[in-house]
Specification:
The chain is mostly helical. Among the domains are: 126 residues; 118 residues, no CATH class; 111 residues. It is 72% helix and 0% strand. Helix 9 runs parallel beside helix 11. The longest helix has 26 residues. It starts with a helix and ends with a helix. 33% of the residues are buried. It is found in: Nucleus. Keywords: Cytoplasm, DNA damage, DNA repair, Nucleus. Belongs to the multisubunit FA complex composed of FANCA, FANCB, FANCC, FANCE, FANCF, FANCG, FANCL/PHF9 and FANCM. This complex may also include HSP70.
């Protein structure tokens, strides 16, 4: 590596001298010498670019103080610009000098200089000497007209592409595939320049009629990278076209979101919601093809983590953001529900799509019973067109956490006999792998716990130990079992809603949180509960204050 650095420095000095000679004399001899060395100089430029792209602008000038002079001399040499890929590589090298966020006037001036040189390169092969003489005769220096020239060229090309898109099968007026491919290639190093945005957008939305994609993969990758890093801002229609035309870009956008979620604070749904909305994925997912890819990647994450609660919560937040984007885009579904959820019952999907906020509170219990009936038929009877089995139905159900999390509250806040439909829904939500017999046993266990909790809610004095005993939490049962997690969540709901629950809430949580894993589970439950209460507007002052205090205390402990 050190040897390569020494070699590059030696080459740099050699070519700097060569360019100075070529620049000072335009005799036949210097022109011949230039042509002889063009291939070697292009190879040197490639090596320079590989080195420059790994450094920021300040580091580049520390290592190569005269780099601007070298590139300028090369850019004003017509033989170099006309040779093979030298023009493109020069553009790449110049873009490495740009400060994305200039901190002082020197950096701003450098950016302006680079922009001017880029404009010169783009216009050098199209405009001849007469044009230069004409503009000079009008009193304009190159630094004045090159930026405007670039902007006009971009707008002209963008207009031509839009016409190309509208011309359809009119082959005489259509831009050739080769020219489209060439344009996309030239744009790669220029993508982050604001003036080039219209051309990038026009290329993305311009669909050719070829059987294969004609735009360069490097173009899609560069645009996607710039979008993810917030270096450019394109209309949502252009972003959708990008992700529809180049699947790796959509997959990378999802992985970028996952990386942000992993590195963020655990169990903070408000922050997760901000990351998700900022990713533009919910808005783009209004197109079913993008939604299906995103949903499949969430499914893979869920399977890889054995159904981790954090992944389930993230899916639910994404779904909420998606539904908001869908409603904002169009009150009526542009695509049939079946295109979003092809393997599930349309009638079940339609019921789940209802926002609990839009259903009168008095009808919540009836709606939950209806959801339970449809799910049970899909899971146990395989009717209503469900083809994916229990896990497919469960995966659909967890998308709509608003309904799933309301079941326990409805059971605890009702003095009536617990409806079998709601008991089944709880058992299925927490353990979709169970067969009928095992799920029936869980329902019996949950019904017994609910009976104890409702009896204790009428007691004048509550104790955390008695509550734990009544719920069967003091036995040797594996605390990681789905049924035990279900019961823990019933207890947490109870201490938040029961009249005397707030007095023993801390003691109950201390008894439950005997492992770090369960502590994180409780934090997740409280955060999710507060997030849902805030959305539905059902938070009581006492319960909300208690949940926030508990959440804050637990977060300081982990």
């Amino acid at each position: 590596m050190a040897q390569e650095s020494v070699d590059l420095s030696c080459d740099y000095q050699f070519w700097m001298q060569k360019l100075s000679v070529w620049d000072q004399a335009s005799t036949l001899g210097t022109q011949q010498d230039t042509c002889v060395h063009l291939a070697r100089f292009q190879e040197f430029l490639r090596k320079m670019y590989e080195a420059l792209k790994e450094m920021d602008s300040n580091t580049i000038f520390e290592r190569f103080p005269t780099i601007d002079q070298l590139l300028a001399k090369a850019c004003w040499n017509p033989f170099i610009l006309a040779y093979d890929e030298s023009q493109k590589i020069l553009i790449w090298c110049l873009c490495c000098l740009i400060n994305k966020e200039p901190q002082n006037s020197r950096q701003s001036k450098l950016n302006s200089w680079v922009q001017g040189v880029l404009s010169h390169i783009l216009s050098a092969l199209r405009f001849d000497k007469e044009v230069a003489l004409f503009t000079q005769g009008l009193g304009y220096a190159p630094i004045d007209y090159y930026p405007g020239l670039l902007k006009n060229m971009v707008l002209s090309l963008a207009s031509e592409l839009r016409e190309n898109h509208l011309n359809g099968f009119n082959t005489q007026r259509r831009m050739t595939p080769e020219r489209l491919a060439s344009l996309s290639r030239v744009c790669v190093p220029l993508i982050t320049l604001p003036d080039v945005d219209p051309l990038v957008e026009a290329l993305l939305v311009c669909h050719g009629h070829e059987p294969q994609e004609i735009l360069q993969p490097e173009f899609f990758e560069a645009v996607n990278e710039a979008i993810l890093l917030k270096k450019i801002s394109l209309p949502m229609s252009a972003v959708v076209c990008l992700w529809l035309r180049h699947l790796p870009s959509l997959e990378k956008a999802m992985l970028h979101l996952f990386e942000k979620l992993i590195s963020s604070e655990r169990n903070c749904l408000r922050r997760i919601e901000c990351f998700i909305k900022d990713s533009s994925l919910p808005q783009a997912a209004c197109h079913p093809a993008i939604f299906r890819v995103v949903d499949e990647m969430f499914r893979c994450a869920l399977l890889e983590t054995d159904g981790a609660p954090e992944i389930i919560a993230t899916i639910q937040v994404f779904m909420q953001c998606f539904l908001e984007a869908l409603e904002k885009e169009n009150k009526q579904l542009r695509f049939a529900l079946k295109t979003y959820f092809p393997y599930t019952s349309p009638s079940l999907a339609m019921v789940l799509l209802q926002d609990p906020q839009d259903v009168p509170r008095g009808c919540w219990l009836q709606t939950l019973k209806h959801i339970s009936e449809l799910l049970r038929e899909a899971v146990e009877d395989q009717t209503h067109g469900s083809r994916g089995g229990p896990l497919e139905s469960w995966f659909l159900f967890i998308h709509f956490g608003g309904w799933a999390e309301m079941v326990a509250e409805q059971l605890l806040r009702s003095a009536a006999e617990p409806p079998a439909a709601l008991l089944w829904l709880l058992a299925f939500y927490y353990s979709p792998h169970d067969g009928r017999q095992q799920r029936a046993q869980t329902m019996v266990q949950v019904k017994a716990v609910l009976g104890h909790l409702l009896a204790m809610s009428r007691s004048s004095s509550l104790s955390a130990r008695d509550l734990q005993t009544a719920a069967g939490q003091d036995t040797e049962t594996d605390p990681r079992a789905p049924a035990q997690q279900l019961i823990r969540h019933l207890l947490l709901n109870f201490v938040l809603w029961a009249p005397g629950g707030h007095t023993i809430a801390r003691d109950v949580i201390t008894l439950m949180a005997h492992t770090a894993e369960i502590t994180h589970e409780i934090i997740g439950f409280l955060d999710q509960t507060l997030y849902r209460w805030d959305r539905l507007g059902i938070e009581s002052p006492r319960s909300g204050k208690l949940a926030r205090e508990l959440l804050k205390e637990l977060r300081t402990q982990v």
